[in-house]
Design brief:
12 strands; Helix Hairpins; Beta-Lactamase; Heat Shock Protein 90; 10 helices; alpha+beta; single chain; rod-shaped; about 475 residues; 5-stranded mixed beta sheet; 5-stranded antiparallel beta sheet; 3 domains; about 15% strand
Length: about 475
């Protein structure tokens, strides 16, 4: 596998290619425009000298110059450094032109002279005998002694030198500009890719479970937004990691206590240190601890399934009063153990709701167990059911120590220990999380408030959709 190119290399090569291509295109366009302008200038030069030669010919006729005098008079105008002019007769013979050592007559094709004589101003450019030239010709009125009709042809030679001079200027300019642009692109590419390299380094640390470092997003562009997203992701992952660690620690702690108790009871029973009349009591305690473990495991599985969206609510119409009464009956042993009572305030009819019966039973069990757990011995828990227009309102009020306002949002977290609020060491700490998840999937909001102004007691209130059977 070949070496992978970095983002910096890709950016630098891309920008360099674009700039180089742009300059090459600019050079070709500029050279083409120069070519057109050069030929246009040549044609203007020809017109100027054509008029001048015509005036000179008229002068020689008015002064009745001899042929030798005409040649001597016109020759200085026909020979220049960058071009040469030739006078041809109507039979295409050369009448007057530069000296043989300076002549470019070989660059003039007979066909070109014929065309100039017949069609007027004619131009032709190209490479002849390895030399690049441009010719302009037109018919001209000659003195009578030269035949009276002929053609003036101007040959611009040494064009290779001019093109090479312009091309060298273009190339030098492009080279200097590209060198400067390369330095600028190098710096810009480094600045653009530097945050990406930093993000890559930090994300690699995240992959190893180290969330101690965040991306320093200083810009407000897309890279800065990406940096902020990476930082947000890191914070969420760190929170998730802390939650996972706390979950493992809390589950291990809550399992260790009952398992330790069961192990102690088993050792005592095996050693025969438990009196015969106390064995039933020990068995009852072992059963209670086993039930506690099972409840913790089941609650943890339920919570995981609810949070993963693996549980689908199946709403159905049923009587909420019957469910409340059934739940209170199931909790009778716990109520007797603390000498507590549950008082239900509910109408006798029209209390049919539309909800998932089994999941709502979990809600009532967890809320009532929570109320029993945190209420003092001999107190009363009140369940109030009220029929509203479209909903059935349920309120569960206990007489416990209450919850601080700042800690109400915390009680829904898994394994939240109310040592910081109002719980003791009992309970798995998952029950209220299950309550919140089930009600959220019913699109039902649960509200927690203090029952009295002095902070004693807590009320959990929510409303379920009311089911009214349609009349036929």
């Amino acid at each position: 596998m070949g070496k992978r190119k970095s983002m910096f290399q890709k950016l630098f090569l891309t920008y360099s290619t674009i700039i180089l291509s742009s300059f090459l295109l600019f050079g070709c366009v500029f050279l083409y425009i120069f070519h057109l302008q050069l030929y246009s200038d040549y044609e203007e030069t020809f017109v100027y000298h054509y008029d001048k030669v015509t005036e000179q010919i008229q002068t020689t006729e008015s002064l009745a110059f001899s042929l030798r005098e005409v040649e001597a008079f016109l020759l200085p105008s026909l020979v220049q450094q960058e071009y040469s002019m030739y006078l041809f007769g109507d039979d295409m013979s050369l009448l007057i032109g530069p000296p043989p050592d300076e002549s470019r007559e070989r660059l003039i094709k007979p066909e070109f002279v014929t065309k100039a004589l017949e069609e007027g101003i004619t131009t032709e450019g190209g490479r002849i005998d390895g030399e690049l030239s441009y010719s302009v010709g037109a018919p001209i009125q000659l003195p009578g002694m030269l035949g009276g009709q002929g053609a003036l042809v101007m040959v611009f030679h040494d064009l290779d030198h001019q093109y090479m001079q312009v091309l060298s200027h273009i190339l030098i300019t492009i080279a200097i500009t590209i060198a400067f642009a390369a330095v600028v692109l190098w710096i810009m590419s480094k600045r653009i890719t530097s945050p990406l390299r930093e993000m890559n380094r930090v994300v690699r640390k995240y992959a190893k479970g180290d969330f101690s470092e965040f991306v320093d997003a200083t810009s407000s562009d897309e890279i800065g937004q990406l940096g902020e997203s990476v930082t947000y992701m890191a914070k969420e992952l760190r929170t998730l990691e802390e939650t996972r660690n706390n979950l493992v620690a809390d589950v291990a702690h809550d399992l260790r206590s009952p398992l330790t108790s069961i192990k102690g009871f088993l050792i005592a029973l095996a050693d025969g240190t438990v009196p015969h009349d106390r064995k039933d009591r020990v068995y009852a305690l072992m059963r209670a601890e086993t039930e506690r473990i099972i409840t913790l495991v089941n609650d943890t599985l339920d919570m995981s399934q609810l949070e993963a969206g693996q549980v689908t609510m199946v709403p159905e119409p049923y009587e909420i009063n019957e469910q409340v009464a059934f739940t209170v009956a199931k909790l009778a042993p716990q109520l007797e153990a603390k000498q507590m009572t549950i008082h239900v305030e509910a109408p006798y009819t029209d209390t049919c709701v539309m909800a998932d019966r089994n999941r709502m039973e979990q809600v009532f069990i967890n809320l009532l167990q929570n109320a029993i757990q945190f209420s003092p011995r001999g107190s009363e828990v009140v369940v109030h059911v009220e029929v509203l227009t479209k909903t059935i309102a349920i309120r569960i009020t206990d007489q416990g120590p209450g919850i601080e306002e700042g800690q109400i949002s915390e009680i829904w977290k898994r394994f939240y220990k109310a040592d910081k609020a109002r719980t003791n060491k009992a309970g798995s700490g998952i029950g209220l999380s299950i309550v919140k998840s089930i009600l959220d999937q019913h699109d039902v909001e649960i509200v927690v408030t203090r029952a009295t102004q002095d902070g004693v007691g807590t009320t959990f209130a929510f409303e379920l959709p009311r089911y009214v059977e349609s009349e036929e």
